[in-house]
Automatic annotation (TrEMBL):
SUPFAM superfamilies: Composite domain of metallo-dependent hydrolases, Metallo-dependent hydrolases
Amidohydrolase-related domain: residues covered: 53-427
Protein name: Formimidoylglutamate deiminase
Domain Formimidoylglutamate deiminase N-terminal: 3-41
Cofactor(s) recorded in Swiss-Prot or TrEMBL: Zn(2+)
This protein's UniProt keywords: Hydrolase, Metal-binding, Zinc
GO CC term (a single one): cytosol
The EC number(s) this enzyme carries: 3.5.3.13
Molecular function in Gene Ontology: deaminase activity; formimidoylglutamate deiminase activity; metal ion binding
Taxonomic lineage from the root: Bacteria, Pseudomonadati, Pseudomonadota, Alphaproteobacteria, Rhodobacterales
Keyword presence, Magnesium: no
Keyword Ligase annotated: no
Domain of life: Bacteria
């Protein structure tokens, strides 16, 4: 059944227009967009293309608030946080993972994201034993997507070794581990669960990082991707850079680009510890930089060189990574404010033609769509109907129009500004809430109760 929306104003590929009629076909694609149209159908506030969340580890959402005490190490860091994460995940069952993922996906939708690229690496039972179904956990991510209606790009993770020196996986890593043959079996086993989802679901691959895959494994995973997306953590921490340099004689971006042809299939996550020449290599490649500013702040990763990268034509998108705080406008805000704090200026990511919020949103919408291998990113015929309608009655939006709407959404927005979201035509947020919020939240609360002593 077709849907007809009437947006008071909408951001289209050629700019803002008033009284925009948007028709959504039964297959979830936009079939027609008509500015200056008479009002009919569902009347909505300012309409935007709803971005893809390009990087998520769903299960980490349940850790929020559990890692903020200083341990025995003289300095807390990403690496001490990682040890806590390993201890936490050893408590998780498949039922837990599904309940957490559904809650995370619901929060993403209510925040304005229409889809997610799930960087999924929790494959095995505690202790590393395999499940009867190699894709048991991947299937739970798919089951959560079926419940929430989010658009899913599933990225099973290849994780082979405990470090760049090839050491064995440690106790906290064995739930992730596969050799190349085992990973191929996991990929094949995950396909039926993905195929049971609506037609906009996609699959890619994710060699975890240069710390966790061998060069042979990197080549194998790249081959398995075919034309699908390839995601990888890269140059997140200084210790990681030093480890790669010690083993290969090259910095992470240099080594990756020497090993495989990095092109527009790739999404390289974080890249907070890159030198200018590496930044320019990434910008020229056509790959997407996957930025997760809230998590990068939380983990002390560093600040991505967003201004120079964007000025060089680099592509980026936004993800929520550890999911401790899921908010599209807050990720935009944190990205921009990190540049301001570093360079002591204002409107750092604005351009001569577009305001800060508009430029960040445009680049992130296009970059997220590319990274998720999802035909969206603009409101135009033939695109998936991934749509975000802001609340026209939101106090902070009174009297705002054009790019100033996006600037206001970025600087002071939260989920209360999100009125409606469609994912490939599925109306997944109505009047600010997911229709299955009560049941999804109840299952998540039950899971948190069971995990209350996990750390």
């Amino acid at each position: 059944m077709n849907q007809v929306l009437h947006a008071a104003t909408a951001l289209l590929p050629d700019g803002w227009h008033a009284d925009v009629r948007i028709e959504i076909g039964a297959d979830g694609h936009i079939t027609a967009v008509t500015p200056g149209a008479p009002a009919e159908g569902l009347r909505i506030g300012p309409a935007l293309s709803a971005p893809a969340n390009l990087h998520s580890h769903a299960f980490q959402r349940a850790m929020a608030g559990l890692s903020e005490r200083r341990g025995p190490d003289p300095r807390d860091s990403f690496w001490t946080w990682r040890r806590l994460m390993f201890r936490f995940l050893d408590q998780l069952t498949p039922d837990d993972v599904q309940a957490i993922a559904a809650f995370v996906q619901m929060e993403m939708l209510e925040s304005g994201f229409a889809s997610v690229a799930e960087f999924h690496y929790l494959h095995h039972a505690p202790g590393g034993a395999g499940y009867d179904d190699p894709a048991e956990m991947a299937g739970r991510i798919c089951a959560a997507a079926a419940q929430t209606g989010i658009g899913l790009t599933l990225l099973p993770v290849l994780y082979q070794v405990g470090g760049r020196d090839g050491r064995a996986l440690g106790p906290g890593q064995v739930r992730f581990g596969n050799d190349v043959d085992g990973f191929a079996r996991l990929m094949a086993a995950a396909r039926p669960a993905l195929d049971a989802l609506p037609r906009d679901a996609r699959m890619g691959v994710a060699p975890h990082s240069l710390r966790a895959v061998t060069d042979d494994g990197l080549h194998a995973a790249t081959a398995m991707a075919g034309i699908g997306p390839i995601h990888m953590h890269l140059a997140e921490q200084t210790a990681e850079v030093e480890e790669v340099q010690a083993a290969t004689g090259a910095r992470p971006v240099e080594h990756l680009f020497a090993q495989v042809p990095v092109d527009d299939r790739w999404c390289l996550i974080h890249c907070t510890q890159i030198e200018p020449h590496e930044r320019d290599m990434l910008a020229r490649s056509g790959a997407v930089a996957g930025l997760c500013p809230i998590t990068e702040s939380s983990l002390g990763d560093g600040i991505f060189d967003g201004v120079a990268y964007a000025d060089a034509g680099g592509r980026f998108g936004i993800g929520s990574d550890s999911n401790i705080r899921i908010s599209l406008p807050e990720e935009m805000r944190t990205l921009e404010y990190s540049q301001r704090l570093r360079d002591r200026g204002r409107a750092m990511l604005a351009s001569a033609d577009h305001s800060t919020g508009r430029r960040i949103f445009d680049i992130a919408a296009a970059g997220g769509a590319q990274a998720a291998a999802r035909g969206t990113g603009t409101i135009a015929p033939g695109q998936w109907a991934d749509l975000l309608a802001l609340n026209a009655d939101a106090t902070d939006l009174i009297g705002r129009s054009g790019d100033t709407l996006l600037d206001t959404f970025m600087t002071c927005g939260d989920t209360r500004m999100v009125a409606h979201v469609w994912s490939a035509g599925r109306h997944v947020v109505e009047d600010g809430a997911h229709p299955r919020r009560a049941a999804i939240t109840r299952a998540y609360r039950d899971t948190l109760t069971r995990l209350k002593d996990a750390l």
